[in-house]
## 1
Amino acid sequence: MTCKTCELLQQRDAGTAPLWDCIHRALGWDVVHSFNTSLPGWLVIVARRHIEAIDELTDDESIELGRLIRQTSQALKETTGCEKTYVIQFAEHKEHSHVHFHIVPRMADQPEEFRSLGIFGYLGATEEERVGEEQMNELAVQIRDFLLQAD
């Protein structure tokens, strides 16, 4: 089976990924904006090598991941004004079994039905509902600048 996440990594390696899909590259991780969400700032931290479970992480990858989770959460607070962030990891989708972590902004005024597990109501959005590429790119620049200063 083909791993779509690995295909997206290859595009980043080749320099052909759009800005929103290549916000920040660390040694073991990439930070990208989710493509199929209606919530601006829904980020994903993606392992740069194909692994399917957290226990396969190296010590260095684990340490770097911890820093990136904190830094992307700080960046989202700064850029979106969110109250806090959710961190979610499954790697269960048949085309995306590759380890990745969703870092999701939770706004102060977010409707109750979209809090906690309800946050997934923002994923799988139709083309019309999705965050537009221009808005994703604007956020990407702001988040990239924040992460570069944090390094």
Note: The two ends are 36 Å apart (CA to CA).
## 2
Amino acid sequence: MFEVGEYIIYGNIGVCKVLEVKKMAPPGTKTDKLYYELEPAYDKGRRVYTPVSNEKVLMRKIVTAKEADELIHRVKEIDTLQIRDEKLREEKYKEAMRTCSCEEWIRMIKTLYLRGKSRQAEGKKITSSDARYLHLAEENLYGELSIALKIPKEKVEDFITKRVETQG
């Protein structure tokens, strides 16, 4: 169970702060269940209520500062997504997003960045699907690392780039 004040990843909503754990009766029932009251970190004022026992949506603690540092240190070693069938490209992106894994988000960002560069070299633009998934992966990764490393979200990309460049 997560503690009040803790930051967690809640499915595709991303980083949320646990505001409260309380008993509630879902509409149409008479039975009280334990619920988390969550506030998305980048959508202040919005509330999300989910059963503590929810197994349909992936919930996990955010990475620690140490884990974030280790992850950034390994960025160069993380492979891109292997997509052999273009028809399955979007499905691969969806699968990677559903994992709610920082490593998978990095894998996606690297894949989409390199694909965009390749398309650009051919005189083509990035596809709207690629642009959408690149944005989603960046938002999720940078949002989580921002909280873990206690740096503003808009500075995370530069922080990672500088760290990777100094590794040689």
Note: The chain has five helices and five strands.
## 3
Amino acid sequence: MNRLIPIALVAATAVAGGAYWFAQPTQSALAQNTLTLDAIENVQLVASDEASANSDEVVEMVMGAEDAPITMIEYASFTCPHCASFHENVFKDLKANYIDTGKVKFIFRDVYFDRFGLWAAMVARCGGQERFFGITDLLMESQSEWSRAGDPVAIADALRKTGRLAGLEDDQLQACLQNEDKAKALIAWYQENASADDISGTPTLIINGDKHSNMSYRELSKLLDEKLEG
């Protein structure tokens, strides 16, 4: 995994377009193989005594059999180009060959490098568990379009459009994007998980407790088969 210039994720107190604003990653960072996050402690929207209570409200997004022999957690950002590439070139085959066949229980955990990644996560979660992965598909597949739609207002509008394509209503989307308590809970949840699993970049995979960086489907399939045989 190529390392990036560290990206400071600093929260502001303003709310715009219905969600919190963040510093954006640099273009040089986006050009690398993965995105890194080593300034988790700089996100200060919630106090430490609030964090646990807030994060307990966040629903884990899970796909696959509960009793699958392998549990895989993917840490990904909706604004990470390499996460979109992983989704297109690895996840689809992973789902067909391992998740849908009962071999892998898959958990998706959001990472927030910037305001737009948080907004996208709030849209994806707006439809609940039953629609989350479908909306995630749409967001990852169209990432290069909505994330470059223009200024923050244009990007927020593009995200709402994606939500509407998934069957969400405008009022529902607006309520989700303006939910400050949910934004705080998501950030607290992200902080706790990323710190506990020592996440330094995306995409990162935790496979039966072992951490792995971005890889091809061939590499991942080989790794999973070895674990299944072992």
Note: Strands lie at 11-16, 19-22, 35-36, 61-63, 70-76, 104-110, 201-202, 204-207, 210-212.
## 4
Amino acid sequence: MNISDLEAKTIHELYEIARDLGIASPTKLRKKELIFEILKMRAEKEGLIFAEGILEIMAEGFGFLRVAGLNPSPDDIYVSPSQIRRFALRTGDMISGQVRPPKESEKYFALLRVEAVNGTDPEMATKRLFFEDLTPIYPNNRLRLETTSKEITTRMIDLIAPLGKGQRGLIVSPPKAGKTTVLKKIANAITANHPEVELLVLLVDERPEEVTDMERSVKGLVTSSTFDLPPENHIRVAEMVLERAKRLVEHGKDVVILMDSITRLARAYNLVEPPSGRTLSGGLDPNALRSPKRFFGAARNIEEGGSLTILATALVETGSRMDDVIYEEFKGTGNMELHLDRKLAERRIFPAIDINRSGTRKEELLLTEEELDMMYLLRRAMGNLGTAEMTELMLERLHHTKNNEEFRQLVVKSSFAENVRALNQ
């Protein structure tokens, strides 16, 4: 009995099978969870191990199931080339199946039988389209970030730079402007408001304590390569995260990758890529930008169903000419930008968002007509204010309203517009 046979059964039939196998409290499990518990118990009764992991296919044709996140570990499971060819498996697939212990001359556990690919029948995996063959369209389904009245950061982003499913966004930030905190708040807002979204967090060349903090703060798959690891590891981890996201999108899922940062990934490629003989300002090789652009360009809304949203941080004002060149190269490729301002952060105004420079392309596809009119009115009214005055004024009004709808009604009233005009004079 394989996974497709079990999926065809009713939940009550599955309860009976589970009780016969001795599974405790089967009625507390959802159907998909119950199916995997049945498969796991059957494997154990046959003296085998039931395991799952994310597949990474090596250049030699065989692969490994990464069971400890996306990084290699001694517990990884060997997958033979014949299994990869039979089910048309791809790097990033979540494989579930029966596993046997290593023999005398072997180092790793080996996959005996493929029970499921990305939670579905393995035979279905052979019929899916490639990610590159799916049709990209503009984001038209909004990811709402507003949660509680006190979460001002996400409320502010929702108003000035709305995020949609399939968005390709940059958080442009100088050092110590609060970009990691902004990423964390966005991650938690997506988890709270959109449980159907698969959240992946990628930290490249980060401090180890930042990784621990992110893992404890965010409900999602956090994958990292810290600054004490070689650039080859940064690249491998980033490519694994992207491949995992693509496999989920191929199955019609909505996926969000939050990345910190695209600048450090480009630096890693600059160290690893063979030199082309040409050098841009700051010592950057033009070839080093191809792969980070391919990563960032993978973000898209899919007409056939599913989406891949990538929100990446880009570092500026670091004193490095290379970082500025990397940002300039990525500047026109995104369709949403959120700018953080160093002067605001120095004055301890958080979130240190530069309202004038932040925004979303084709925002009319994401906002209602009332919200769009409010944003046009707000930007016109605050247009002549300085960055600090504008952000301070908006933060003050947000603190005095319970939600964004109440803030919208406040803006539409003439009293708010008059206050702003008075500040302009």
Note: The first strand starts at residue 49 and ends at 57.
